[in-house]
Amino acid sequence: MQESRPARERRLARETRRGDRAQSELIGVVLLFGLVVAGTAAVVALGGVAIDDAKSHSEFDRAEQVMTLFDSKAATVALGDSEVKTVSLGRSGGQYVVDESSGRLTIVHENYDGAGSDETLYDEPLGAVVYHAADGGTIAYQGGGVWSAPADGGATMVSPPEFHYRDGTLTLPVVRATGTSTTSGASSARIKAQSRGDRVYPDSSATYGEDEDGARRYVNPVENGRVVVKVQSEYYRAWAEFFRSRTEGEVEVYPGTQTATVALVTLGTNGDFRMPAERGSIDVRGMAEHTLDDFSIALRPDDSDSANFNNLQWSLAAEEGDQQFEIHLRKTGSSGCDIAISTSVYYSDDGGDTYHGWYDDDAFTTHCEDLDGDGDNEVLLDADFVDNGASLTYKKLQKSELMHFKPGELRESVTFDEHEADSGETYTAGENDELPLSTLVSHYFSLLSPSFELIVYDKNSNTISESVSSGRVVYSGDENYVTYLQVSESEVVVELD
């Protein structure tokens, strides 16, 4: 039977729709397959990167552990009693290299003579055993420590170097790594002692400057100036952080030369000293607050002086920035052996506009003794500023009661609260408020610390003979000073198999 035209059109429309659906389904399947393939490829690619990253981090961490083990073995060879040690480096995708030119350690004693002269005590390459990771990161054994520099930047310390600072003593057993070998994959390192504990400082056979008779030698205690330790290294920032964590010294970094430095000041005059001549100075340096244990002087008359201290006016004065300080001694009593000596203590922290003033008219008394054995007694003054019973009153000072500074305006009151050891009490002019001389000297020295110079002023220079006078000052150093320096050098040869 022949289809009617309308029926045929309806049938063709249905077939067309079925074809479109079939075609759409096919396209959907193809698109879905493509998405699956692309997703799988992305997962594989990203997973591969993640796996590679994890593997790289794992190898880097393992290399750090290997280097830490290497460090301990090297220490027993360089500083202990083992001649040879072997360390398994394991298997990795990186490379181990011995670079004996890597890094440099320099020790300089600056201003060792008080006149600006510097002495280089040590200056040698440290050498390093370096692990180079595939991603560009490095781990190095250098200077007796282990240092890490990942590829993403920054340097950190994994284990500390051979650098020990405690109570003013710097101990630095330098360990140098030498050798030229390189290895990849499975390997081991053989560490052999080349030299051990060669003395650098102290060394009485070495001298500062030119080698002349009487020249200053490399001996302790270290005096004048400061000791500066310089490390030039790819890991200089990590070295600087280590210096900051172990000392209170002045730490500097110099990115241009990849150098870290730490400066430790030496203590100045500490112990017995010969009295400096007029306008000479007693150098107090590196003093910690409230650690003055002893401060005393022994003033002796000039041989030609027949006045026996009748003209005595003698001071020690210091000026540091706006700070001014003076201890003034003056004859106030009658002649003879037992002459009363007044004491004035002056302090200003604003350049002399205002000041603290303390005074006692008989803080000390002279005595007589035949020092030269000629049968005649000489008048002597032994003044102990720490161990004595004298107390001074807070008051306005007269011009005659100071020698170097001119008193400005006396502060109406003063409170001792700058330091933990202070009482926190307030002392007022006109109230007869007193303090022991020992407390005053310790307090004002603490305000002037850590470093200052006490300059000798002798108004009548034929009264005191500074050349036969003496003194003693004893104090503890703060946390950026060095008194004893112990430096030695050991060398290990590293062979990689």
Kindly describe this structure.
This protein has 497 residues and is of the alpha+beta class. The chain folds into two domains: 61-267 and 484-496, no CATH class; 276-468, no CATH class. It contains three helices and 35 strands. It has helices at 5-78, 236-246, 437-448, and strands at residues 84-90, 95-99, 104-110, 119-125, 128-132, 138-142, 145-149, 156-159, 164-166, 169-178, 182-184, 187-201, 203-207, 217-218, 226-232, 250-254, 259-266, 271-274, 281-284, 287-299, 313-320, 323-331, 340-348, 354-365, 367-369, 378-384, 391-394, 409-410, 413-415, 426-428, 434-436, 452-458, 470-477, 481-482, 484-496. A hairpin with a 2-residue loop joins strand 9 and strand 10 (169-178).
> Overall mean pLDDT score?
87
Cα-atom radius of gyration = 39 Å
Low-confidence parts, pLDDT < 50 over ≥5 residues?
42-55
Proportion of β residues?
35-45%
CA(first)-CA(last) distance: 97 Å
Number of distinct helices: 3
Assign the structural class, choosing from mainly alpha, mainly beta, alpha/beta, alpha+beta, or little secondary structure.
Answer: alpha+beta
Name a few traits of the molecule.
497 residues, alpha+beta, 2 domains, nine-stranded mixed beta sheet, six-stranded antiparallel beta sheet
Topology:
Blueprint: H1 5-78, E1 84-90, E2 95-99, E3 104-110, E4 119-125, E5 128-132, E6 138-142, E7 145-149, E8 156-159, E9 164-166, E10 169-178, E11 182-184, E12 187-201, E13 203-207, E14 217-218, E15 226-232, H2 236-246, E16 250-254, E17 259-266, E18 271-274, E19 281-284, E20 287-299, E21 313-320, E22 323-331, E23 340-348, E24 354-365, E25 367-369, E26 378-384, E27 391-394, E28 409-410, E29 413-415, E30 426-428, E31 434-436, H3 437-448, E32 452-458, E33 470-477, E34 481-482, E35 484-496
Parallel strand pairs: 10-35, 17-34, 24-28
Antiparallel strand pairs: 1-12, 2-5, 2-11, 3-4, 3-15, 5-6, 6-7, 7-8, 9-10, 12-35, 13-14, 15-17, 16-17, 18-33, 19-32, 20-26, 20-33, 21-22, 21-32, 22-23, 23-24, 24-27, 25-26, 27-31, 29-30
